[in-house]
Specification:
Elements lengths: L1 H13 L13 H33 L7 H19 L7 H24 L4 H7 L8 H18 L3 H18 L4 H22 L5 H4 L8
Length: about 220
């Protein structure tokens, strides 16, 4: 017991997981949780790329309007992808796990507002109101938390940039300071960083994400 407490204190004082040593064999549940977590990251990156391409095409043909229910389906898919990582992330500190889940619940509440206000068409609120983009801040915060955690643990420094850029991007979008071209290129930059982050994160050995199971706070 004393050894477990000492290991937990060492990890918590160090502030990060980022453990590359194998502390214990991985269980089937461990492997599944890591695979789901990383799948969420991959899907998030793919969806951000798709969103950037759609905004680029909209900028090229400004008279066209994004398909209403297609925008809703896209946003819901992004929520699902981020949620996969939120609920399978491995964090030693219990309050961080609780905070991230609560932030995601706030994001879901914001999604409900988007869909209800748009009567099923989230695009009318997202692109047609000043407050619409602000409703994506909790979701951006969730994904930013994940990328920042990986940056902290494994020196994937683009994760810090993403954690700062995504909430800033939706805030600027809401303020009207970003024109169509700037919005498209801004999302393309975020998507590019997310792809880089994904290519660096996903190939890591599975046990990196688990770390020392004895150090987890209940």
């Amino acid at each position: 017991m004393q050894d477990i407490l000492t290991r937990r204190e060492r990890h918590l004082r160090g502030g990060a997981m980022g453990e590359k040593a194998v502390f214990q064999p991985l269980s089937r549940e461990d492997r599944i949780s890591v695979i789901v977590y990383r799948t969420g990251i991959v899907l998030s990156a793919m969806l951000l790329v798709l969103g950037a391409l759609l905004l680029m095409s909209r900028h090229a043909a400004p008279a066209t309007r994004p398909a209403g229910y297609g925008v809703t389906a896209y946003i819901v898919a992004l929520y699902v992808a981020v949620g996969m990582s939120v609920f399978t992330i491995h964090l030693y500190v219990a309050r961080f796990r609780r905070f991230l889940k609560r932030l995601y619940y706030a994001a879901v509440a914001a999604l409900v507002v988007l869909v209800v206000q748009g009567r099923g068409d989230a695009g009318t609120v997202l692109f047609g109101t000043a407050y619409g983009p602000l409703l994506l801040i909790p979701l951006a915060g969730c994904l930013g938390f994940i990328t920042a955690k990986e940056a902290f643990c494994f020196r994937l420094n683009e994760g810090y940039l993403l954690a700062l850029m995504m909430p800033a991007y939706v805030s600027l979008l809401s303020s009207g300071l970003l024109g169509a071209r700037a919005a498209a290129y801004g999302l393309a930059l975020i998507a590019g960083l997310m792809v880089l982050f994904t290519f660096r994160k996903v190939p890591m050995p599975l046990h990196y994400d688990i770390g020392d199971k004895a150090a987890y706070e209940p």
